[in-house]
Design a protein that fits this description.
Length: about 280
Amino acid sequence: MTMPPADAEARRAIPPVICYPTETLPKPDLALYRAALSGAEVTATTLAPPRDACSFTVPAGHFFRITSVDGPQVGDLNLWNAHDLSERFYSGKTRALHGTHVTTGDRLWSSFPTLRPLATVVEDTLDWYGIDAFGGSVHDVIGTRCDPYTGNLLSGSQYHHCCHSNLIRALSAACDLPLAEAERHVHDVLNVFMCTGFTRDTGQYFMKASPVRPGDHLTFLAEIDLLGALSACPGGDCSSEHSSDTAACFPLQVEVLAPVTGALDGWQRPPPNGYDRTHGVT
């Protein structure tokens, strides 16, 4: 290791600066959203089976709720514009704006060039968890998704029910796409219910047993027409390992809820980002 300079401690002591202050971000009207949710009715229900995935569609201005059923289980969520798969959830920008984990009031943002809210978290029954003594928290936007390529790299395995593959199959079936084309659209996820963080000594991504229990749920307002896919991770509650059939796994339920007419009066779909896209060329 390089010998530290004489002013090493002074350099370390420089205070951090938030990269993207969010005071000017448009704020969701959570009071309006919650009032609309209170009278909303379920219009569709689907299950992501253990070690598999489901797809679902949500019209703009409707809600979708992901619920743990039967046992503690984490899930990997992908979202797309239902009419244009090139507009999809952008976990990196969501992380930059809201932090490593999301909860009530945070939004899931879309990819360039639209960069707009896809969905807003309206309720989170695990919001009590906060950040634990290990630096862990729930619903992360830092993990990529378990995948067969990393498994093969590390152990030479050919495991086909990683979240990456589960999401590919779900999208392929939903859009009648060949697997290879569907794979191009599967992207970094929201790790629903997963408890994760970074170790303080080595900075490594860790997972620990999720605090989720049957009945816990995460509810969103769809800000645009959405196609979603949700994988019930082969890691179960992620207390031990993933990318295998070792862990106990349980289904995850997805409900779509329609608010009563007029409940969201004043709400508007977010427009695409206003940047002119000239990139300095005149």
